[in-house]
Amino acid sequence: MTTYTPALVNSTQEAEMAHYVDTLDYPFCHDVSKYEKIVKVGQGTFGEVHKARDRRNKSKFVALKKVLMDNEKEGFPITALREVRILQLLEHENIVNLIEICRSKSSQLAKHSASFYLVFDFAEHDLAGLLSNFKVKFSLGEIKSVMKQMFNGLYYIHANKIIHRDMKAANVLITKKGTLKLADFGLARAFSLERNGKPNRYTNRVVTLWYRPPELLLGERNYGPSVDLWGAGCIMAEMWTRSPIMQGSTEQHQLKLIAQLCGAINPTAWPGVEKLQLYNTMEWPKEARRRVKDRLRPYVKDQGACDLIDKLLLLDPSQRPDADAALMHDFFWTDPMPCSLEKMLAGHTTSMFEYLASGRGGGGQAAAQAAAHAQATAKPGEQSSNANRGGQRNEGFKDMVY
Ligand SMILES: Nc1ncnc2c1ncn2[C@@H]1O[C@H](COP(=O)(O)OP(=O)(O)OP(=O)(O)O)[C@@H](O)[C@H]1O
Ligand SMILES: [Mg+2]
């Protein structure tokens, strides 16, 4: 795809580019009108997501994720390009399937410019939506199934040298058959081992604040797949607590919450932490005792589960289990064994998404956006106020499960 250097772009070139995009005949890029939009199910940082139906095959449902082009004077946004490249590489039962990229032409009449859409197989729920609905009750075997599939997905992407970097319940999709799909590869990237002894210098401004591991909060740039295991630990605890376990409002506050739960951040618990850029500038309780198991036990009655969460939430990233080790944990190999969610989900006839669950009041999406999105999806650097996705929500979802 053509990219334009910002310094060279002027209004004439912008108009030329718009004309070029509009008049180009894309042999491999269908018009999005082949799908009929049904309902909006998500509002991400990078665009909105609609449930849609294939006009030629009415039983086929897809998710259309619009690529935000608004501020793009440089052509197709690099973030979306990265997401597409990574999704094209990945093919696994527990990873969302990208079907194709579609486009829409600009319309002088409706005053909108050309857009692109990522078209995915549709999943009926996301985990944040399911956890927000207290009528959805997971048995221990069902929780094991969710976590097992999550680690299977992580094992696969990490084996393919991809880090997700935005693990959170809203980015975990669940189909009505109970199959889990890791979604939202908008922040994902390829990783490599240190080359010639030179450490990697990745950005640490990734992962939604509440799920961000301590190494990123302390400025580490040479991190690896273990950042996703921290996120998986937060999500696993949430399977019982039903709302995110550490809802910081700033990076400093997030570190404080981590220290209160996981114990003082110091070289005894985490050798080498003193070398991290922000170690001496951030403040947190210096004497705090680790109390992950104590704090979670009232919710997480299963001992194996408590033990696995405790390990995933280890401060030192090198001590966290990788996805393979997590799958080998006793939790998955003691009764009750993982069991399908299909039957339980069949009892719920409405789709559950974070976007539709938040805001309440008859599914008022504007409120959903203002309340939940601004906070639960606060990207690095943003300050999020203390919203609570948990709340007392349990109804008000708009969309039907077909
Ligand atoms: N294939 C799909 N099927 C059903 N719903 C989906 C699908 N893909 C995404 N969604 C819904 O849309 C929401 C936003 O999508 P996604 O996370 O990919 O966008 P995003 O802009 O990167 O989001 P954010 O930046 O807020 O994390 C998801 O949380 C989910 O609820
Ligand atoms: Mg997302």
Salient structural properties:
5-stranded antiparallel sheet; Phosphorylase Kinase, domain 1; 2 domains; 10 strands; alpha+beta; 3-stranded antiparallel sheet; 13 helices; binds magnesium ion; Transferase(Phosphotransferase), domain 1; binds adenosine-5'-triphosphate; 402 residues; globular
Describe this protein's structure.
With 402 residues, the chain is an alpha+beta fold. The chain folds into two domains: 29-121, Phosphorylase Kinase, domain 1; 125-391, Transferase(Phosphotransferase) domain 1 (Transferase(Phosphotransferase), domain 1). It contains 13 helices and ten strands. A five-stranded antiparallel sheet has the order 1-2-3-5-4. It starts with 10 loop residues before the first helix and ends in a 26-residue tail after the last helix. Residues 1-8 and 359-398 have low confidence and may be disordered. Bound molecules: adenosine-5'-triphosphate and magnesium ion. Residues 41-42, 44-47, 49, 63, 65, 96, 120, 122-123, 126, 166, 170-171, 173, 183-184, 186, 353-355, 377 line the site of adenosine-5'-triphosphate.
